[in-house]
Design brief:
Blueprint (H helix, E strand, L loop, with lengths): L1 H24 L2 H14 L3 E5 L4 E4 L8 H28 L6 H26 L9 H8 L4 H26 L9 H26 L4 H5 L1 H14 L2 H13 L18 H18 L3 E2 L1
Antiparallel strand pairs: 1-2, 1-3
Length: 288
């Protein structure tokens, strides 16, 4: 019986790791594709699309208008937030299974983390006159570091990240049968949040070593990669901490089904194939 339980726990972890990899690929490339399409809408010529960046040149639209000052660099984070809210509605309104629900949940948290994270990080790290790296730092730069805009970014970013913590805490209980069982809460939160967070932070930092930013400027990469992969997805770590250790569990039971504890070889193969595509195609970049 112990061996069966250990195998089931292992399969839960492997399934969640695979779902985490797939969820990241439904988030970061969407962010960069939004950059590319928005800038092409401004008449810019596409140069490259990679996992961690998009490059265009020579926009023909008047990008000094208020609309383009915001959208030319800031549209991708806004798209992340919009997609996050759409997926949150799906989580609340749709009947999802033991694989589809965690996939939608992880993707929701990643989109919100990336979208709101740009507001918070860039609001904090923006430096007048410096070569600012973040999307919304560039937006802020377009408005000459406007203090009202910066405060608004900080407020939206802070509230958004707190919202990520809340979603992670609340949604985890869909996979917990006994809210008062601390060991079960820890097992579920570890598989759902902690292990995918650690895996993605390591794996995507390594595969992005083949990306244009790392190849052109390793110093910038060593700043950007931890911000996105470690600090940008910190909601997963705190989701684990809140569910497993820190926050009093919910009184009402919202248990629907356990995380998938079956051997899902096809899912693992898909995740591995996606990761190989990232490493050898998307991270080095697709050039036009």
């Amino acid at each position: 019986m112990d061996k069966i339980n250990k195998n089931r726990r292992l399969f839960v972890i492997l399934n969640c790791l695979a779902l985490g990899i797939i969820a990241m690929n439904l988030t970061a490339p969407v962010h960069e594709a939004t950059h590319l399409l928005t800038q092409m809408a401004a008449g810019a010529k596409p140069v490259a699309l990679a996992f961690g960046c998009a490059d265009t040149i020579d926009p023909t639209a008047n990008i000094d208008t208020v609309f383009w000052k915001i959208m030319y660099a800031g549209s991708a984070a806004l798209m992340n937030i919009v997609i996050g809210f759409i997926l949150l509605i799906v989580l609340k309104k749709c009947k999802l299974g033991p694989l589809s629900r965690p996939l939608v949940l992880l993707t929701t948290l990643m989109h919100f983390s990336m979208g709101f994270g740009y507001f918070l990080r860039d609001g904090i790290l923006y430096q007048p006159g410096a070569d600012n790296l973040g999307d919304w730092a560039k937006v802020l730069e377009n408005f000459n570091g406007n203090i009202i805009l910066r405060i608004a970014m900080l407020v939206v970013g802070c509230m958004g990240i707190l919202f990520v913590f809340y979603i992670a805490w609340r949604q985890a209980y869909h996979f917990i049968s006994d809210n008062n069982d601390k060991k079960e809460r820890s097992r579920v939160a570890s598989a759902l949040y902690l292990f995918p967070y650690l895996c993605n932070a390591v794996v995507f930092t390594l595969v992005e070593l083949r990306g244009p930013i790392a190849q052109d400027n390793m110093g910038s990469f060593l700043i950007i990669s931890p911000i996105i992969n470690v600090f940008g997805m910190i909601g997963f770590f705190w989701g684990y901490m809140f569910v497993a250790h820190m926050v009093k569990p919910r009184k009402d039971n919202v248990y629907y089904f356990s995380l998938c504890a079956e051997r899902k070889i096809v899912l693992w193969v898909i995740a591995a194939a996606v990761l190989l595509f990232d490493a050898f195609v998307l991270c080095p970049g697709i050039y036009f």
